[in-house]
């Protein structure tokens, strides 16, 4: 059945059927001149060879079968151009989403290429393979960049959270952290060994040089 996308296939089938039935003369030869009193016997014979069932079946607008078929072809040729544009756009804008099977992605590209071939636009297999590689690499590179950006953003967010937690600590909490420091000399909390008075007294008693005071 003729629809908006199968005119070429439909026309081929029609021509085969009409040829097998030997009723395709009107499509192969120009229309003969109308019979007159001066028409030759050959012209009369050709006119008589037209089946009576065909005579008077044309509409007022259609005078020749060939013209009718040509007009159909022109009408459907416009649809072919629209379909070509749509298929080419689909082929060039195909994206690998990362979740689907790569084999199915490649098969879909070759399926679109086969539709273009039916419309007399043939893409070589080497070109198709190159297109698959280019589109896949571009998409994978884009996904890698996005992943790196997300990782970096997550790292920055983690640092910001740590900084906010530090800033949220009050003076009392920081003082408490300092108090929890133990001296290695007297083993008492709240100061370091270099600030320990007992340690300084011990050094003085031993005759050791005085330590520089902490700034």
Write a brief caption for the model.
62% of the residues lie in helices and 0% in strands. The protein is an all-alpha fold and 215 residues long. It is rod-shaped, with a radius of gyration of 46 Å.
Q: What is the strand and helix layout of this fold?
A:
Blueprint: H1 7-20, H2 25-28, H3 41-48, H4 65-92, H5 102-118, H6 125-168, H7 171-179, H8 197-205
Helix pairs in contact: 4-5
Domain CCHC-type: 183-198
GO molecular function, one term: nucleic acid binding
Pfam families: Retrotran_gag_2, zf-CCHC
Report the total helices.
8
Number of domains: 3
Counted beta strands: 0
- Quote the beta fraction: under 5%
First-last Cα distance:
98 Å
Overall geometry:
rod-shaped
Helical content stands at: 55-70%
- Could you report the average pLDDT, rounded to the nearest whole number? 74
Specify Rg, calculated over alpha carbons: 46 Å
Uncertain stretches: none
Domain CCHC-type: 183-198
Keywords: Metal-binding, Zinc, Zinc-finger
InterPro entries: Znf_CCHC, Znf_CCHC_sf
GO molecular function: nucleic acid binding; zinc ion binding
């Amino acid at each position: 059945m003729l629809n908006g996308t199968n005119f070429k296939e439909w026309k081929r089938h029609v021509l085969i059927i009409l040829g097998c039935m030997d009723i395709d003369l009107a499509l192969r030869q120009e229309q003969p001149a109308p019979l007159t009193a001066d028409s030759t016997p050959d012209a009369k014979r050709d006119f008589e060879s037209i089946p009576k069932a065909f005579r008077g079946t044309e509409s007022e607008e259609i005078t020749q079968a060939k013209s009718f078929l040509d007009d159909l072809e022109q009408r459907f040729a416009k649809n072919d151009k629209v379909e070509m544009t749509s298929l080419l756009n689909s082929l060039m804008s195909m994206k690998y989403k990362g979740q689907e099977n790569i084999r199915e992605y490649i098969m879909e590209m070759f399926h679109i290429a086969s539709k273009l071939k039916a419309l007399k636009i043939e893409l070589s297999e080497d070109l198709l393979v190159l297109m698959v590689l280019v589109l896949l690499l571009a998409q994978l590179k884009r996904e890698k960049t996005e992943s790196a950006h997300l990782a970096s953003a997550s790292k920055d967010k983690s640092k910001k959270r740590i900084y906010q937690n530090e800033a949220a600590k009050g003076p009392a909490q920081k003082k408490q952290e300092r108090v929890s420091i133990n001296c290695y000399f007297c083993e008492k909390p709240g100061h370091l060994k270099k600030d320990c008075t007992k340690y300084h007294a011990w050094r003085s008693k031993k005759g050791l040089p005085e330590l520089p005071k902490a700034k």
